[in-house]
Design goal:
Strand order of the largest sheet: 3-2-1-7-19
Helix content: 25-40%
Largest sheet: 5 strands, parallel
Number of strands: 21
Bound molecules: NADP nicotinamide-adenine-dinucleotide phosphate
Structural class: alpha/beta
Shape: globular
Oligomer: single chain
Number of helices: 20
Mean pLDDT: 94
Low-confidence stretches: none
Length: 652
């Protein structure tokens, strides 16, 4: 349990006219949940008005004029709002007090929101997620003075001050464990500090891309821009007093476990270039999977005389307005860069090797309405259920479509459900383009989920059809001082080459040198690009080394890395508690436990669209093993990381 209570709703002081207007912005399903809390009455869940789909694709592709978020018709939404206004009036008149909540209503609420029968296994997850008792159960508070004293003598080094590192700092503070965060940049935010390319924003909803205990009710955009996210993490680091413990412009060179003292010696290079060794009882790596830009392996790249940039290190000096720009790549980064650069570039050439699937999401660039912000702050449990709705709608509703049906025989899909999705996504692409030649170029020839599916409001294909934009699918032969030469010998002269070519995602913890027991090097144990960890967190032979967003923890079916990071930190804290309570020094994952877990991970990943041998993507290493992705449902991973089993570890 954490010492922090989950924030509760602020009192409603606004008049009816204000509330009626605000309700026009809110999510209907979450509003109905809040009404149940305000009244204690579940009869609204039994009526004819129900969400129609939790599937983002079908919801997004419905006739927008007739349906709103969650598949409610506009008439249904209006009826719910009218009823909600009365409920809110009563709640306000009662001084914003809630009737006792019967948690027996949760199954019915879940079924209503998800459109599925209640599954018992969800109960604990929902109770924690919605925080019905108002308590944040993911932290750790040590009440025993003896444990507090041990914790105070348990210094930890956290590597990275992005989402994971800040979370680790907040949680260690709560537990009274001292720590230092080492950060190579001048500020916090990690990937959101580094990725500043035009159009950069997160493509999962902001309201689920934040810490559960620190919701941001003021996101300006549903899918926040890079700056907004960085500001959020800056605020978290400041408000939770993590910032003071961060050493900026300092890089970890190596971390070595000292068998004799059973401590980690972490060598850091300070901003002045001098090295120093920090001693720690444990190391938490929160360096992320996508932080080392990968330049394309194209002959002549270094000879280019214009400006060469990478999406992951976009310099402020890169001014594309009026210039001839080439973008290499068509993944998540390129997909955001292209519509933005196309607005003002003199000419833009997009060099695409393989096109991306895209989800229809008309609200992708929408600002969050003031009514929604009000509801998040003031309607009891609204923000919690809204977050859950985002999770459920973007995760569980889609997970089944990623799994391979062995009896399904097609190059373009992996199952009937996956194929149904492919047809929906194909229709979305075709609805935006008339030119058959262009359709052929932008229509993926691999199954949905073979690569990351991108959120789309139509701006990408619109940009490709602008007069100043050309899509080039002929392969690149070489780069020359003037520009790019394609396989057909054509020279494309450009002023700027922007490589949106991804990251060294298969080199976990790269380029740090990490040495475990008996001098074993992590890079060797992982054979360079074959990262493996138990639950993505612990690694045999590397006692008290913990990873956040380590091997096989990336989420493909949207969801939220923030949620997963909380699961990982929950687990790490409980590992530390085992050490403190037993007064032991180290905890080392058993090889057999690690191997069995990884066999399971590999087995499930091999049966997914992204693991299929027919697709290539950044989730796989050079030998084709999926090293990036978590193949489990969020619920399953949450359960696995709830409490470490002592038998899984050698504890000394
Ligand atoms: P990516 O998905 O790995 O895409 C790299 C692109 O570059 C692909 O289109 C790839 O083509 C192409 N490419 C690579 N080497 C090439 C070469 N030598 N010649 C021609 N084309 C080449 O990288 P990313 O777009 O940076 O995205 C990586 C991940 O970062 C995403 O999947 C996502 O998880 C995260 N991300 C998230 C957001 C967001 O939240 N909005 C934004 C950006 C990134 P092939 O597909 O044919 O290999």
């Amino acid at each position: 349990m954490s010492k922090h209570l989950q924030p509760s709703a602020e009192a409603i002081t606004e008049d009816d006219a204000f509330i009626a207007e605000a309700l026009k912005d809110v999510n209907t399903a979450a509003l109905i949940m809040s009404m149940v809390h305000m009244t204690g009455d579940t009869s609204i869940l039994k009526g004819a008005i129900r969400p129609k789909s939790s599937d983002v694709v079908s919801a997004g592709s419905k006739d927008q004029a007739r349906y709103g978020e969650g598949g409610f018709t506009l008439e249904e939404m209006e009826a719910v709002r009218a009823q909600a206004l009365e409920v809110i009036q009563g709640y306000r008149e009662r001084g914003c007090t809630l009737p006792p909540f019967d948690s027996g209503a949760v199954p019915e609420m879940f079924s209503y929101m998800s459109g599925r029968d209640f599954d018992e296994e969800y109960l604990a997850f929902i109770k924690e997620e919605i925080a019905l008792d108002g308590v944040d159960h993911r932290g750790l508070v040590l009440d025993d003075p003896e444990l507090q004293a041990r914790a105070a003598n348990f210094p930890v080094v956290i590597i990275g001050a992005g989402m994971g590192g800040i979370l680790a700092g907040i949680r260690l503070d709560e537990a009274g464990i001292p720590y230092t965060v080492i950060e190579k940049n001048t500020g916090v935010g990690g990937t959101w500090f580094e990725n500043k390319y035009p159009g950069c924003r997160v493509d999962v909803p902001g309201h689920s891309y934040s810490f559960s205990f620190e919701p941001n009710h003021d996101w300006r955009n549903h899918f926040p821009l890079s700056d907004e996210i960085r500001e959020y993490y800056e605020r978290c680091a400041r408000d939770y007093d993590v910032e003071r413990k961060i050493r900026f412009e300092t890089e970890v060179v190596s971390a070595a476990f000292d068998d004799r003292s059973q401590t980690w010696k972490v060598e850091v290079r300070n901003r002045d270039g001098n090295c120093e060794v920090l001693e720690a009882r444990a190391v938490i790596s929160a360096v992320g999977q996508l932080n080392r830009p990968k330049m394309p392996d194209i002959p002549g790249l270094e000879r280019f005389e214009g400006q060469l940039v990478h999406s992951g290190a976009w310099p402020d000096s890169c001014r594309h307005e009026g210039k001839r720009v080439a973008v290499i790549g068509s993944g998540a980064s390129a997909f955001q860069i292209i519509p933005e650069v196309a607005k003002t570039a003199g000419a833009l050439k997009v060099f695409q090797r393989s096109p991306a699937w895209m989800f229809p999401n008309p609200g992708y660039h929408s600002a969050v309405g003031e009514g929604q912000k009000w509801a998040l702050k003031k309607l009891p449990f609204y923000s919690k259920w809204y977050r859950f709705w985002l999770f459920y709608a973007t995760v569980e509703g889609v997970y089944d479509k990623t799994l391979v049906d062995e009896s399904w025989d097609s190059e373009l899909s992996v199952s009937a459900a996956n194929d149904e999705m492919r047809l929906g996504l194909t229709a979305w692409i075709e609805s935006q383009v008339d030119d058959p030649e262009l359709i052929d170029k932008v229509l993926p020839k691999y199954p949905p989920f073979g690569k990351r599916i991108l959120q789309d409001n139509g701006s990408y294909l619109k940009a490709l059809q602008q007069d100043n934009v050309a899509l080039i699918t002929t392969g690149i032969r070489e780069i020359v001082p003037e520009g790019i030469v394609t396989e057909d010998g054509e020279l494309h002269e450009v002023d700027i080459i922007a490589c949106a070519t991804g990251f060294n995602a298969d080199r976990f913890l790269f380029p740090m040198k990490v040495v475990g027991r008996n001098g074993i090097e992590l890079a060797e144990q992982w054979q360079g690009d074959n990262g493996r960890a138990y639950l993505g967190i612990t690694v045999p032979n590397f006692p008290n080394l913990f990873c956040i967003y380590g091997p096989n923890t990336n989420l493909v079916v949207a969801g939220s890395i923030a949620h997963n990071a909380e699961s990982q930190m929950n687990y790490i804290l409980r590992c530390l508690r085992i050490l403190l309570e037993s007064d032991n020094r180290t905890l080392d994952c058993r090889q057999a436990v690690h191997d069995a877990y990884n066999a399971r991970v590999d087995d499930i990943n091999a049966g997914t669209a992204w693991g299929s041998p027919r697709v290539n993507n950044w989730y796989k290493n050079a030998s084709g093993r999926v090293t990036a992705n978590l193949p489990f449902r969020i619920l399953d991973y949450w359960k696995m990381t709830k409490q470490p089993k002592t038998d899984d570890y050698i504890i000394e």
